[in-house]
């Protein structure tokens, strides 16, 4: 469960970073 939460958080950070890069 904790790893799943970490995965979701990492996915959000990745998307946010991608947005900032654009």
TrEMBL record:
This is Uncharacterized protein. It comes from Anguilla anguilla (European freshwater eel).
């Amino acid at each position: 469960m904790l790893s799943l939460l970490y995965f979701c958080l990492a996915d959000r950070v990745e998307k946010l970073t991608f947005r900032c890069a654009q």
